[in-house]
Amino acid sequence: MAPSISFPLSGSAMIETLDGSNWPTWLSCMIALFCMNGLKTHISDTKPASDKDWDACEEMVLGILEMYCQKDVWTSVSDNSTFGTCKSKWEELQKLYRGIGSMSAFNFWMAITNATLDDSTPLLPQLQKLNDLCITLSNNDNKITDLQYCFTLLKALPESYSAIASTILASGEPKDLTPQKIQDQILNEEG
User: Fold this and answer.
1) What Rg value do the Cα atoms of the chain yield, rounded?
2) Strands (E), 18-119
3) Are 40 and 87 a contacting pair, CB within 8 Å?
4) Mind giving me the DSSP string for 71-104?
């Protein structure tokens, strides 16, 4: 039987194209897609001797990886003589994009500190992108303290949210602020 694959429903979880800066978001979506289709072993294991469908599934995983990587990103793993399997391509992508260099760290830092939230579009995805940037920096020894991140979130709020920002700041001591509480209040206000 020919293998098949299912994708998330349109409008549900959109899978971003890997551009090199969005590794955490891309990674979680791709792993979910592979798990949902029973293909995760192709990025974590080598070919077993007893799996007659392995090669056909391997081709599907390669197609998915190429489809969800920008051309310049895919070029870094496209050489089949060097990266002949899904697993080897996956490991190289991890090596290249999981860690960040000084320039990327600076760009991520600037993206966080200069962030502005747009109240004309849903705030949850915007907040998630900021969270992903913060996690990426933290995973690469560039941790932003919770208080710094709280202030960054408040600074990023649109003018229409100035009352909620004032309420949050007047609610207690700085040590009592947490990014999760602030995001919850922002999303409650949006609702």
Assistant:
1) 20
2) none
3) no
4) HHHHHTT--TTTS-SHHHHHHHHHHHHTS--HHH
